Amino acid sequence: MKEGLRRAAGKLTAPFVITLVVLFGFYLGGDSFQGFGLAAMDSTRRVLKYVLGVAAFLSLAVLVQRIVQYVIFDGIVASATGSPVPKLLSQMSGLVIFGIAVSACAGIVFEQDLTVLWAASGVAGLVLGMALRELLQDVFAGIALNIDRAIRIGEYIQIHRSGDSKISGQVLEISWRTTRVRDFMGDLVIFPNSKFSAFTITNFSQPEANSFRFVTLTLDARVPLARATRILQAAALEAMTGLAGPDTPVPWVEVKAIRLEGVEYAIFYKAEWRHLGNASPMILQTVLTHLAFAGLETATMLTDGPSVADGAFRQAGGAGPDTAGLTALLRAAALFRGVGDAPLRLLASHAAMRELPAGQVAIQAGEAGTSLYLVLEGLLSADAGRRSVRDPLPATLRPGDLFDPAILRGEAHGSTVRCRTAVLLCEFGPDALQALFGAGAGTMEFGAGAGAMERVARNLVSGSASRSEEDEERVADTLRQMRHLFPAPVGRQGSGIGPVANTG
Predict the structure, then answer these.
(1) Its membrane topology, per UniProt (predicted)?
(2) CA 251 to each of CA 294, 356, 361, 421: distance values in angstroms, whole numbers, following the listed order
(3) Where in 368-483 does DSSP place strands (E)?
(4) Which residue, 218, 202, 216, is CA-closest to 251?
(5) pLDDT band at 472 (very low <50, low <70, confident <90, very high)
(6) Which pLDDT tens digit goes with each residue over 123-142?
(7) Can you give the pLDDT at residue 133?
(8) Read out DSSP for 190-252?
(9) pLDDT at 117 > cutoff 50
(10) Beta bridge partners of 271
(11) Of the spans 38-52, 65-79, 223-237, 273-287, which averages the highest pLDDT?
């Protein structure tokens, strides 16, 4: 607001000073010349009177026009409406003000009869009106568009008429003769105002900036409704968050139809029009990614053979992947990179599935770490608050992400993790991790637990087999802590191969 006032003051200062100087000179050029005995300068006085009089009215017109433009239009009206005043109204106001100034010069300075002037201008206006009929139609259509306020500068609209193709874009300007719209291909489309006002206009920015849309896809009818809703909603929310930001409204999923090939779902989402053009393909792309991770396919991709949903990734009621499928997911996780299949199969066999509703807290910052979680379906958010966390979790946790490794360090959780949608988590508690790191003889090959512990410790510290001295010290510290938390069972202690229990 202060910046606008300073800008307006700068624009008004020059015409205001010029007006005062000219009026003062006009005063001196009148009776003051007679006081100095300059009777011989009557003709000069007359010419000076005309010049100063015209300058006085024109400078006053400039001052008034800038007051109207920068104080009334850009200040009061723009603040009240929340949008800039169309250029056409500013130009019309300037035309009226300077028309009055010219009339005042003719009537007062030059002492002409304005009746004759207006009569002559009326005849000229009639002739010009006949010659410029289409141009005047555009002008008055532009005036009607600005008065009606059906569209505003910056709004997103769609223009169409029966039999014509539709054009969508953003309104850039409404001038005397044309309306300019930038379409979503980045091209500038220019409409004559008379033609533009005859179109059917859909305003996507009113009465509110956000609009609803939906996309559909069909899944196998054997996929449980709750599971399908969880996967599709999480995928749509991830796509819209990446497109429109974290404050985007949460999409929702409904059953649209039941067909022979499966159940057709509709994913509803809401966003500003400038995002809607890219929303549908991004949502479908993200949905395919989430479905692939969950081991599902759209019904249109199914063949006559067995469904993927009936294979390794399906349990009774769609409760999550089986041991083979979960082993494949663990193998892809960064924390278990380099760990052999046998330890991961053992870890997967001790996993537990947890279904959490949207809004529930999965882990609370400050509480002791008791489990390691793998996101299977759904979307979660992590917030460290004002805490200084050594290895902060990503702000958004999606399928395939592991959290929180605090249990491996014997620490408290550094972040609060909350479900943004309904989620399916795979939980690895102390018993599962003990089976991985301190398995007894006969459960897997000898020494595999020790090797898995060292590999996890390295991944936890640096994500790679780093050989720097500082990283090696951190790996050694982490490894000692993990040996204390997950000791080797009796019979393998002190063998020099497995982890050694803390006897202190």
Answers:
(1) Multi-pass membrane protein
(2) 20, 18, 20, 10
(3) 372-377, 380-383, 396-397, 402-403, 416-419, 423-428
(4) 216
(5) confident
(6) 666 656 555 667 667 777 77
(7) 64
(8) EEEHHHHTTSEEEETTSS-SEEEEEEEEEE-TTS-HHHHHHHHHHHHHHHHHHHH-TTSPPPE
(9) yes
(10) 211
(11) 223-237
Helix, strand, or coil here: 148? helix
Supply the DSSP string of 70-122, one letter for each residue.
IIIIIIIIHHHHSSPPPHHHHHHHHHHHHHHHHHHIIIIIS---HHHHHHHHH
Count how many residues are written for the chain: 504
In 3D space, the residue among 425, 315, 320, 313 whose CA is nearest the CA of residue 373 turns out to be 425
Whole-angstrom CA distances from 7 to 16, 75, 161 are 15, 11, 43
Q: Which two tokens stand for residue 382?
A: 């992590």
Q: Does the reported pTM lie above 0.70?
A: no
Specify the 3-state DSSP secondary structure of 426. strand
Rounded Cα distance between 108 and 10, Å, is 30
Say how far apart CA 123 and CA 113 lie, in whole Å: 16
487-492's contacts with Cβ under 8 Å and 24+ in sequence apart are 487/438, 488/438, 488/449, 488/450, 489/438, 489/439, 489/440, 491/440, 491/441, 492/438, 492/440, 492/441
φ/ψ of 376, rounded to 5, equals: -100, -45
Q: Distance between CA atoms of 383 and 420, rounded to whole angstroms? A: 12
Angle (deg, nearest 10), helices 341-349 and 430-437: 150
Kindly state the tokens that stand for 364.
Answer: 């609370």
Q: Residue 191 and residue 188: Cα distance in Å, rounded?
A: 10
Q: Answer yes or no: are the C-beta atoms of 407 and 484 closer than 8 Å.
A: no
DSSP state of 68: I
Using the 8-state DSSP alphabet, how is residue 439 labeled?
A: P
Cβ–Cβ < 8 Å for 183, 169: yes
* Lowest mean pLDDT across 24-38, 179-193, 337-351, 417-431: 24-38
Calpha distance 483→45 (Å, rounded): 107
Cis peptide before 430 (omega within 30 of 0): no
Give CA separation, 291 vs 192, 314, 380, 386, 397, in Å: 49, 13, 17, 35, 16
What confidence tens digit (pLDDT) does each residue in 61-81 have? 888 888 888 888 787 767 765
d(CA 258, CA 264): 6
Query: Dmax of the chain from CA atoms?
Result: 130
